[in-house]
Amino acid sequence: MKEEPQFPQVRQDEIQLAIRFVRESPKYSHLAPSDDEPRWDWLMFRTIANKIAELRKPDSNLAHLTGVVVRQFVPAWNKGMRLLGMAYRDAMMAVFRKRKEWQGKLRRRKKGKKEPPENAGQLVLI
Question: Highest taxon of the source (predicted)?
């Protein structure tokens, strides 16, 4: 029986990227704490990200799954909570976009790298 692939948990630098995204966003910057020491926001990003990694399947729609998980932790009771949920969702999507860019770079490096031919007793012109 084939086992489902395990998606990686979010690293600390990715959480910092999400917090920086919220701080620098013109739409959400007023929601971010004013000091440089993340508190509950760091824990909330970590919790949301790990839940996404836990529920994610290879054929998941990542944007939809992220929205569902954010709504579990930040219910949209009023306009302020909806805005906070949107900030978390957009920040997590920024993290996932960054991962996708990085994976693309790794794939391009692997494609560009030429492996030496196998030694099958054939003459190879260099």
Answer: Bacteria
Rounded CA-CA distance 90/84 in Å is 10
Q: Rounded to the nearest 5°, which phi and psi values hold at 117?
A: -65, 150
- Taking the C-alpha atoms of residue 15 and residue 41, their distance in angstroms, rounded to an integer, is 9
CA 64 vs CA 28, 59, 124: distances in Å: 20, 12, 52
- Are the beta carbons of 93 and 120 closer than 8 angstroms? no
Residue-wise pLDDT tens digits, 23-45:
899 998 888 777 666 566 778 88
120: pLDDT strictly greater than 60: no
Query: Which sequence spans correspond to the domains of the chain?
Result: 12-112
